[in-house]
Amino acid sequence: MKDPVDVLIIGAGASGAAVAWSLAETKMHILCLEQGGWMNPAEYPSTGRDWEARFFGEWSSSPNIRGRPEDYPVNDDNSPIKVVNYNAVGGSTVMYTAHWPRLHPSDFKVKTLDGVADDWPIDYDALTPFFEENDRMMGTSGLSGDPLSPLTHPPMPQQPMGLSGAIVAKAMNKLGWHWWPSDTTVATMDYEGRARCINLGHCTPACAQGAKSSTDITYWPHAVRAGVELRTHCRVREITTDENGMATGVVYYDKDGIEQFQPAHVVIIACNGVGTPRLLLNSKSDRFPNGLANSSGLVGKNLMFHPYAQIYGYVKEPTDSNRAPPTCLWSKEWYDTDLSRGFVRGYGVQFVRGAGPVFEAVVSEQKGILPWGEDHHRVFRKLNGHRLGFSAICEDLPEEHNQVTLDPVLKDSHGIPAPKIDYTISENSRKMMDHALARGREVLEMAGATDICVNSPIPWGGWHLLGTARMGTDPQRSVVNEWGRTHDVKNLFIVDGSIFVTSGGVNPTSTIQALALYIADQMKQRLANLFD
């Protein structure tokens, strides 16, 4: 039998990497199990001219399309938004667009401010030092001082506005609406051994240059040098417990498909808002018949996706196409509640630079604006390199019927039940999306755009997987406490997006990692009485 480790982390993505690095200074024996492997940047699509074509197959953001051995299938038939993720060292940070906003202070007090959802048991100020630490570790670029966003201090200057940004900014100025250069985790100068961005290709899928900050090239090298053990191609099936209800370790399948048991004194889950409830629900026992840490019945409930309302059009001037990070500006003009709009809460906006030629051809043909026949090439030249996009990240409020359960039939390659998604977009979110599309149309028309098209919601837009093991002080209304420890199992912690109480209207990765660092700090402060 293997010797027990002090801390076992499940998942090597955004949160798993951050918590491993932070705990490494304790000199405990820390082991991370990751079902994927180390990535080889020489094999990334952006090293070849066919990078866009590969995004429709082996490098799709959807595990159901990719079907790599490291992936697990997801039954999302009963959802208008499909789950997208990535399994590897670095997790979905390998594939993300590197857009880097934070949750706002108001997002932590939604019940108090707006009378909906619940307040978090912590506030923005508790996370501030960890946001700053994470920005240094990941290497953010941006312009400090946005009047409508939390104050940040990026260590690198912002991305160039580019051709697209200048067009958008002029239109927003004419309308009198807020905009600001986006914070990103793409290097604008040589930083911590990583070279600056050279516009090798679209940031999604994967950056062969190493300018985009995925955790396999930021946190993990530091964590491994500090003594953390990272074991790849290890898929965890269940977390085991003893007669006292304490976690004792995990059962997993190794790279050869052989079942193994790894004992541990502390277990930390970092498997995202779908993978974490899947694992907890599959770890049921006589003591935990409804799944591990699920006395509240809320494991898997309150799934929040962020419905994306996207509208785009085509201007006469050239835009940036697939050159540079895909998001150039953001706007928080409609972020907080204004009841005159007809809904509570709000949305953030990302302005997208454009699209590459293959993507443009495929999507425009599907939309019916690119004809076949003798007019094909003329219209394509009009569209290609002239796209301008407005994408609204609409806040999802928690609703228990939006959930992750275990599929009774579908299984992964090791026979573990796959997650099943049941999700509907709320009336509040639909009103928010309609409002966003109307504002986006105004911006595009002010910029002189024509051939305006809509994706609402973006169907392959389930990047943000939140809320399915929520944080709170009441064990009947939450899964983990205010420092990430599960109410039911004193040596089991969760650090990923599943612990979100509300979703905000921004991309969550920065906040997920700040939470992971905060929880690690709490664990270090409480080491003497961790199991009390």
What do you see in this structure?
The protein has helices spanning 14-23, 51-54, 63-66, 110-114, 124-138, 162-175, 219-225, 272-282, 357-367, 376-383, 427-446, 509-525; strands at 5-10, 30-34, 75-78, 180-181, 229-232, 235-241, 247-253, 259-269, 308-314, 327-331, 347-352, 387-394, 403-411, 417-422, 450-455, 492-494. With 532 residues, it is of the alpha/beta class. The chain has one domain: FAD/NAD(P)-binding domain (3-Layer(bba) Sandwich). Strands 1, 2, 5, 6, 7, 8 and 16 form a seven-stranded mixed sheet that branches. The protein has a six-stranded antiparallel sheet with strand order 4-10-11-12-9-15, covered by helices on one side. The chain has a three-stranded mixed sheet with strand order 3-14-13. A hairpin with a 5-residue loop joins strand 6 (235-241) and strand 7 (247-253). Helix 1 (14-23) runs parallel beside helix 7 and helix 6 (162-175) crosses helix 11 (427-446). The longest helix is centred in the C-terminal third of the chain and has 20 residues, at 427-446. The two termini are 28 Å apart. The model has no long low-confidence stretch (mean pLDDT 95).
Protein traits:
FAD/NAD(P)-binding domain; 7-stranded mixed β-sheet; FAD/NAD-bd_sf; GMC family oxidoreductase; GMC_OxRtase_C; FAD; 532 residues; 6-stranded antiparallel β-sheet; single chain; alpha/beta
Question: What's the topology here?
Answer:
Elements: E1 5-10, H1 14-23, E2 30-34, H2 51-54, H3 63-66, E3 75-78, H4 110-114, H5 124-138, H6 162-175, E4 180-181, H7 219-225, E5 229-232, E6 235-241, E7 247-253, E8 259-269, H8 272-282, E9 308-314, E10 327-331, E11 347-352, H9 357-367, H10 376-383, E12 387-394, E13 403-411, E14 417-422, H11 427-446, E15 450-455, E16 492-494, H12 509-525
Helix pairs in contact: 1-7, 1-12, 5-12, 6-11
